[in-house]
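During the reporting period the student researcher (J.K.) took over the structure-prediction task from the postdoctoral fellow and processed the backlog of single-chain submissions. One of the processed entries is reproduced below for the supervisory committee.
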Amino acid sequence: MKIGIIGAMNEEIELLHKAVKQERTIEKAGIQLHEGQLGGKTIVYGKSGVGKVNAAVCTQVLIDQGVDCVLFTGVAGALDPELEIGDIVISTSALQHDMDVRPLGFARGVIPFQEQSDFQADEQLVSIAEAAGAKLFPGRYRKGKVLSGDQFIASRETVKELHEEMGGVCTEMEGAALAQVCAMNGIPYVVIRSISDKADGSAHVNFPEFTVQAADNSFRIIEDMVERL
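J.K. obtained the following structure tokens:
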């Protein structure tokens, strides 16, 4: 099995650099990927950069390397008020909250004239992630819908809207794009996010401080998942 892993920022993949015995580097479309061994498994990993376009390009380049599944590791803002900084979210699905064609009669998040808009995570990968969460962060992980958009959410009103109207448990800027590309290629995926801020306007205080901690928590889940796959 060849496992693909993507992070959006340096903090989210530098731990992989330290853990992986690297064998080769691939560069395509401005994306740099690294292939090597982790826990006796072959993995290909890299940094996508921030935002949905970067995530989509990186995911396709990664899939072109012949990976059997894709895991996304990173940080997110909480939408569910019960989530605290450092908690883990395991995606059950991913939807673009900034896909908004309501004036034409489509529900928010729906991609017009397309059968699928809410992309389901792979059940087996979700189950493996749950097992890792129960071992490493008992009582501090939960499953749910990840909402993605090219926006940094920092408004309590928007948080309430995204949680109550769209059913999201956390918000970030890449997961739904990755999920769509995986669906288009028939590749199973799951997004693992650790909460770095409450998406409520306080991020200027807690995001820089907790990003490293949150990225580390997310990496620990990914590392344990690789061992189980």
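The committee noted the following: The helical segments are 10-19, 52-63, 123-136, 156-166, 175-185, 203-228.
J.K. will present the remaining backlog at the next meeting.
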